[in-house]
């Protein structure tokens, strides 16, 4: 009996102390204190009064999701509290997180005033917008301050306004509520990547996989993690492509070429596309077409491909009808000397030269095998004269 009384007195003093903190506005302390009890003892072994006070404190400290859990528990397990009042509190909590359907249901059963339903209607209109300005963002965050959709709308708005500090603030706020949301994680990973904070980006991905929650199963994490890792790798690669484009514009063409080649090996379509543009600027249509095919339709690559004409080795050479086979081979040898890779010292030029040399060697092999009638073609030419000067031939610089 003594122990029961002592326990009751201890709980009474504890509740009195909590109420004192609540009444002087120490909501966060109250919330943390009772949350610790619930985590250790569970709902069943925690006083219903404590749970109710935590719900009230949670509403004051942007923890509406916990408030919803507490109020739902009270409604299901205690009849002493006024159900309408509990529903009214829960309706506000639902509206805070942007759950307008449940907010409307609870507000209707609690018979809340018309002003609440007007707020719900405004929230529905604002949440349905595809783009926002500062006014709509402010209104939305005032009505639904804990909605991840609202927070991400604010983050994207500030990203477009080139305000990284505010973007990060709202994106991190959204992540705290939904740490497994792929869109939120991807936005933040992109932010870290653009700031060259690769360790932070990777840490964010690891944490999103390692964290556990009552609402997230291991299967969901396993499905989610590869997707985010893939998005992260793609974002990193695209960021590197942007860097290579910038280097090219600054005049570092060969460095840009090497970087794009490395990214192209990883199968990045943008890398293929940008390298193709570099080849076109260097008058190597053959190299460009090969890369454009592998850019998988990126941007207007299909249009560019349709404008390029693929040349077979035998179409490279257009000869006068009296030209001998030996004269044709001599002309190709001269062309081979001009395009020998050893004569070039930059990576881009060497790459193009090697490509042309393979074409020249293949053409020379075919000249030995094919009748001259199949060697005639059309194109933009440069004129060469064979060694004895007797015959004129045209060799297309492809």
UniProtKB/TrEMBL annotation:
Keywords: Endoplasmic reticulum, Signal. Gene3D superfamilies: DnaJ domain (1.10.287.110), Tetratricopeptide repeat domain (1.25.40.10). InterPro entries: DnaJ_C3_Co-chaperones, DnaJ_domain, J_dom_sf, TPR-like_helical_dom_sf. GO terms for cellular component: endoplasmic reticulum. The keyword NADP does not apply. The keyword Endoplasmic reticulum applies. It is found in: Endoplasmic reticulum. PANTHER family: LD25575P (PTHR44140:SF2). This is DnaJ domain containing protein. It comes from Trichomonas vaginalis (strain ATCC PRA-98 / G3).
């Amino acid at each position: 009996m003594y122990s029961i009384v002592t326990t009751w007195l201890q709980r009474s003093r504890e509740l009195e102390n909590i109420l004192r903190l609540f009444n002087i506005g120490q909501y966060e302390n109250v919330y943390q204190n009772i949350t610790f009890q619930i985590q250790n003892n569970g709902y069943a072994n925690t006083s219903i009064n404590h749970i109710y006070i935590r719900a009230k404190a949670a509403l004051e400290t942007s923890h509406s999701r916990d408030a919803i859990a507490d109020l739902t528990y009270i409604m299901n397990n205690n009849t002493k509290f006024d159900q309408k009042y509990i529903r009214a509190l829960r309706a506000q909590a639902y509206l805070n997180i942007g759950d307008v359907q449940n907010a409307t249901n609870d507000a209707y059963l609690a018979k809340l005033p018309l002003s609440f339903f007007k707020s719900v209607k405004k929230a529905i209109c604002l949440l349905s917008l595809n783009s926002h300005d500062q006014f709509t963002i402010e209104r939305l965050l005032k009505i639904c301050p804990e909605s991840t959709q609202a927070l991400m709308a604010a983050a994207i708005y500030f990203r477009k306004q080139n305000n990284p500090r505010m973007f990060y603030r709202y994106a991190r706020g959204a992540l705290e509520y939904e740490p497994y949301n792929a869109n939120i994680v991807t936005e933040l990973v992109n932010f870290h990547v653009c700031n060259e904070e690769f360790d932070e980006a990777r840490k964010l991905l690891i944490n999103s996989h390692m964290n556990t929650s009552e609402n997230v199963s291991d299967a969901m994490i396993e499905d989610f993690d590869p997707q985010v890792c893939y998005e992260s790798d793609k974002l990193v690669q695209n960021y590197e492509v942007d860097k290579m484009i910038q280097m090219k514009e600054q005049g570092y063409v060969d460095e840009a070429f090497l970087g794009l080649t490395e990214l192209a090996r990883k199968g990045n379509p943008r890398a293929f596309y940008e390298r193709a543009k570099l080849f076109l600027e260097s008058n190597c249509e053959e190299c460009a077409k090969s890369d454009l095919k592998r850019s998988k339709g990126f941007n207007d690559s299909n249009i560019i491909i349709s404008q390029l004409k693929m040349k077979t080795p035998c179409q490279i050479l257009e000869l006068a009808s009296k030209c001998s086979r030996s004269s044709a081979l001599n002309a190709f040898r001269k062309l081979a000397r001009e395009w020998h890779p050893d004569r070039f010292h930059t990576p881009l030029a060497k790459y193009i030269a090697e490509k042309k040399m393979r074409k020249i060697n293949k053409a020379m092999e075919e000249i030995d095998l094919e009748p001259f009638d199949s060697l005639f073609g059309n194109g933009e030419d440069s004129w060469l004269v064979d060694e004895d000067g007797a015959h004129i031939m045209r060799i297309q610089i492809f």
